[in-house]
Amino acid sequence: MRRPDQQTTTRPTPDAAPGTPPDAPPAEATGVGAHPPEPGTQGLAEATGPGAQRLADATGPRTRSLADATGAARPPDPTGSRPTGDLTTEAVLAPYLRGQAAEFLRSLRLHHEHSAPAESGGRDAAAATRALRRSARRISGCLHTFRAALDPLWADQLRAELAWLSGILAREHAYAGRLTRLVEALHQLSGPALPAARGVRAAGDSAASDLQGRAALGVGAARAGALLERRLTLARTRSHSAALQALGSSRFHAVADAVALLASDVPLAPGPAGRTAEALMEPAEHAEQRLLTAVAALPPDDTEPYNEAQDAAWHQTRLLLRLHRYAHEVVLGAADPALTGAGHALDLHRDAVEAAGAAAAAARTPRIAPATAYALGVLHADQRHEVEAARAVFRETWPYAAALSTP
Amino acid sequence: MRRPDQQTTTRPTPDAAPGTPPDAPPAEATGVGAHPPEPGTQGLAEATGPGAQRLADATGPRTRSLADATGAARPPDPTGSRPTGDLTTEAVLAPYLRGQAAEFLRSLRLHHEHSAPAESGGRDAAAATRALRRSARRISGCLHTFRAALDPLWADQLRAELAWLSGILAREHAYAGRLTRLVEALHQLSGPALPAARGVRAAGDSAASDLQGRAALGVGAARAGALLERRLTLARTRSHSAALQALGSSRFHAVADAVALLASDVPLAPGPAGRTAEALMEPAEHAEQRLLTAVAALPPDDTEPYNEAQDAAWHQTRLLLRLHRYAHEVVLGAADPALTGAGHALDLHRDAVEAAGAAAAAARTPRIAPATAYALGVLHADQRHEVEAARAVFRETWPYAAALSTP
Description:
2 copies of one chain form a homodimer.
Chain A: H1 39-46, H2 61-68, H3 89-114, H4 122-145, H5 152-190, H6 193-200, H7 205-247, H8 250-264, H9 278-296, H10 311-332, H11 340-363, H12 370-397, H13 401-405
Helix pairs in contact in A: 1-5, 3-4, 3-8, 4-5, 4-10, 5-7, 5-8, 5-11, 7-12, 9-10, 10-11, 11-12
């Protein structure tokens, strides 16, 4: 049990190793990192124009909404204790950002090596892309959370450009994953159950009707699978080209240059105010508070799967959990293990929402056979039930019961 | 916790009022009674031919399968106590059967009164039909369970004829209920959520796509609703005509004559053996034991909704629970309240299975629009998820944990 006014989990306890530079944060092991950012982040970034650096006002409405979304007061520090380690931005944040920037550049080099036409390693290139996105997300998250401790204009601009890059790079991976998910779901509902159904059922009207239905579903499922494969493979191929094009663009080279500068020199906020421990702790606690507030405001469980109106609140919670995770990495050296399950549930939630949307979109293809549309309808409903299931898992794994039970 | 080798719930405790004639058993209050018997029961009855009375070998394969389904040994009597009341067939079973027969005849009279063409009371006629089926099921169940205490040839023949009658009378009600269920489900997934979705969602690609999907689902859902209404209303009208025809047939008059005889004179088994208390207790315990065995043999929860192959085992459990219920009514004067929830879950299970089948059957209508087929696919999947939910509710409400956990 944890109430929002209890001491934050982000503030390090005296025995926690303070501020070791997290060259290799263990967070990726949970599988949470291998996912694209939301489409919304990218539209903002594009508004800043290609190659523009240190543009003022580069932050769009969504960027602000993250900061302004909750009016919740930060929790008072009930102990009055100060962390024992050296938690200044120079000792903790700057090394973290330099480490992630170096990781970004290393992944970029790997990607270039494996993307050569003579190279057979498409898988290695994909792994390099994932690593690139992973660093880009962490840098971007830190620039957001610790904006006040950094040169804010520089932070806003680089963050927008990193969001653009992450968005472009994520899509190929997302389409591939969506196709796998949907094809597996189709197999489950049409394939192996057929012989068992034939063997166990008693003869009779309804049994024959069920078998006929199952066979019809089988034909429709095969066609639906082919349709989804066509659509999502096309989308994936286009995303691949777009990613390659982006990685060759002058806009990308400007991002890479900015990250290369970051690897050696982190632009901190001017004046001594930004260099105290509070300059780290307050933003980290604020990130956590926004997450807790968002979770408390999640719609109650109504077991009605066609509540697409609620998807956005869950997606937003997923982004806030990710920001909290990265802030936790900066301050405590690793992600909060108590939130691993909840984060994984939110990723599954996002995947199911998008898979359901893909099934619905495929069903709007003109001139498809009714059997195909029927199978896509079954698929859509199944994915919406998976959405519901992911929400239930989140509620079960969310470690702070009190925050969730708030209506 | 209850193990199959514990004392049966059917055997009365000394303080239970023994064998009061249950003129108005309270069981119908659970809503369990208002459902038709399975189609299988009726095919058997037709094999006996119209108007034939006391035909030898009138029992078909399904009738036998109820008696032979479990090889489970009946539990030994651990207490050795005998019930204190007068639990002979003459004191308990015969009054129960006479009471139900009188109820049957009263309902039949009511039905004739309300079915006159000048009469506006279609609702009263429907209520009379439900009461008729209710008595028919109870008489039929007792003839099955207590066959050995009765004239067995007479019991088999009357039971087959009552099953035929129940089957015919149940269908109109079943089609009406199925249509209501499906139309409500369609409303849930297309109707009222639309404005909320429009208001809450952020603008953007996926939101627009969702709204488009919702609108497409709305069109398809409206068409699917019209298609289901057409199909099920037609089926219902046909069933209504068939029921009226059956009630005017010579076969029905023979059944009514047999029940009229039963109201005054119950044909007990010849000789004194059938008239002891054991002649009632053993069959009642046997009915309970078959239920426990069937529940223990239910397939484990696999959270996979497209397991139509398992539906039959659940339907069979529902029938066995009903037989146990009626036996409990005979011996203890009322149904076992601990099984009310489980029985209700099995009824919901049956309704959802049949609604899913109706959606799948409608989707096989030639030349329907893809949007209609899509909505029917969503509907089918939803109903199969309801099947799964009903099984979960049964597992939760089943009062004897040990029997269910047996793999």
